[in-house]
Design brief:
- Among the domains are: about 90 residues, Beta-Lactamase (2-Layer Sandwich), CATH 3.30.450; about 50 residues; about 140 residues, Histidine kinase-like ATPase, C-terminal domain (Heat Shock Protein 90).
- It has about 450 residues and is an alpha+beta fold.
- It has a five-stranded antiparallel β-sheet with strand order 2-1-5-4-3, with helices on both faces. Strands 7-9-10-12-11 form a five-stranded mixed β-sheet.
- The longest helix is centred in the N-terminal third of the chain and has 53 residues.
- Helix 4 packs parallel to helix 5 and helix 5 runs antiparallel to helix 6.
């Protein structure tokens, strides 16, 4: 159908899929049937013409010999006719059915007089005409004078056979085309019926249906079935995504409400009665803390949104040791005030990563370890077969077992730390950075603390 005229293509594309398939089948079958019918007709016509020409040639020879010998022409095949003309085209001898009817044109007479053999048909196959003939004319010399001998045979039986063949081919082709179109229609409808069910299911989902899944046969493995499984998988992902979004909105509302409520309470207390300058300063410091908490939360959400919508991160070659040193430096003072150490073990090699995102991700891991654990913190890095493995290990009590499966969810925090500092977005940011690099992040307990591992292609 790509060969359709340009003006017909919009009309064809507007047709339903079933109609387009049936039309394609019908057009293709029409071409095939027309070709097959044409081949059959040509073979039969060739055989009939060969037989007719053989009879005509044999009869012509006998007529030529009879004219040369000056004897009565012998009888020819059934329905044969004859005519003998002089050099000027006057009829000397003619079958009774022909009488003096001229069979040759002036040009044909001239060609025959110069020695050419003329063969042609009189009358046509369609529409039906009477006295259809095939004639052959040749020049014969008799007693030094030229004669034109015309042999003719009737084509009635031959034409009737061809007309009957045309009618049978047309009937057979028409019935075959109808049957093929019907089978194509039924096949297309049956093949697209699951697609219509899937469309109805998608329409139900658009109308707000919950927990919708498509009915996919379990005993098949064709393209439509695989489409159904893919759509069901997509619905699973959409439902999980919607659930995460609902949980995100609920958690974000809670996280935003808490500092706003505290600020409102502080301001209400400050405005309830006159306060000293020291008390007002303390109130402002408390409000400033909550404002900073809101800013940190907004920045974290914006970073996560940017990571989620960025198609490609900007990788560049960077020294691994320098990258880790830059990530650790802001946390050394905090660790020193608490009497803790942060150690780094890294090879002096180059890695191909986006330092803009990886450095704060490492910083989040160090901040979590310093905030929620005890003892020293160890950051190790190793490069093997094109992959960078970063581990941050602490000496605390580790993650609660029930918290590990959701440690990287947004706003996920262990119950013991929900009242502490932090928004619960640190590990979610770490996982987003790992995913943006095409890697993974996971957390585990070591028996002597917790370990968070980043595995990235570099």
């Amino acid at each position: 159908m790509s060969r359709l005229p340009r003006r017909l293509r919009p009309w064809f594309r507007r047709l339903p899929v079933v109609a387009r398939l049936v039309l394609a089948v019908a057009v293709t079958m029409s071409l095939v049937l027309a070709g097959a019918a044409g081949l059959v007709y040509w073979r039969v016509q060739t055989a009939l013409d060969r037989q007719l020409n053989d009879d005509l040639t044999t009869y012509q020879r006998s007529l030529d010999q009879a004219v040369r010998d000056g004897v009565q022409p012998p009888p020819g095949p059934s329905g044969s006719l004859q005519q003998v003309l002089d050099a000027r085209g006057r009829v000397l001898v003619s079958s009774a059915a022909l009488r003096d009817r001229p069979l040759l044109s002036v040009a044909e007479l001239g060609a025959t007089a110069h020695g050419a053999t003329v063969r042609r048909d009189v009358g046509s196959l369609l529409p039906i005409t009477s006295d259809t003939l095939r004639l052959q004319a040749r020049r014969v010399t008799v007693g030094g004078q030229g004669r034109i001998v015309i042999a003719a045979v009737r084509r009635g039986h031959r034409d009737e056979a061809l007309r009957e063949l045309l009618a049978q081919l047309a009937l057979a082709s028409g019935l075959t085309l109808i049957a093929a179109s019907y089978v194509g229609y039924r096949t297309a409808r049956a093949a697209l019926r699951p697609v219509e069910r899937y469309r109805a299911g998608a329409a139900g989902l658009a109308d707000g249906a919950q927990n919708l899944r498509l009915d996919v046969p379990a005993d098949r493995d064709d393209e439509i079935t695989r489409l159904g499984h893919t759509l069901n998988h997509m619905l699973d992902r959409l439902e999980a995504s919607a659930e995460r979004e609902r949980r995100f909105v609920a958690d974000a509302s809670h996280e935003l409400r808490t500092p706003l409520t505290l600020m409102r309470a502080e301001l209400d207390v400050a405005l309830h009665r006159p306060r000293s300058a020291d008390e007002l300063a303390e109130t402002l410091r408390s409000v400033d803390t909550e404002v900073q908490r809101l800013i940190d939360l907004s920045d974290a959400l914006l970073d996560l949104e940017e990571l989620g919508t960025t198609q490609h991160i900007s990788r560049a070659s960077a020294g691994l040791a320098g990258l880790l040193a830059a990530a650790v430096a802001p946390h050394l003072r905090t660790a020193g005030l608490e009497g803790r150490a942060v150690t780094v073990e890294a090879p002096g090699t180059e890695v191909d990563v986006d330092t803009r995102w990886l450095r704060p991700a490492i910083g989040n891991l160090l901040d979590n370890a310093l905030r929620h654990a005890t003892g020293d913190v160890r950051l190790t890095a190793a490069v093997h077969e094109g992959r960078l493995r970063l581990c941050v290990t602490d000496e605390g009590t580790g993650f609660p077992p029930e918290f590990l499966p959701r440690a990287f969810d947004r706003f996920a925090r262990a119950e013991a730390s929900r009242t502490g500092r932090g928004s619960g977005l640190g590990l979610a940011f770490v996982q987003a950075v790992a995913a943006a690099h095409g890697g993974t992040a996971h957390a585990e307990n070591t028996g002597h603390g917790a370990r968070v591992v980043l595995d990235l292609p570099c």
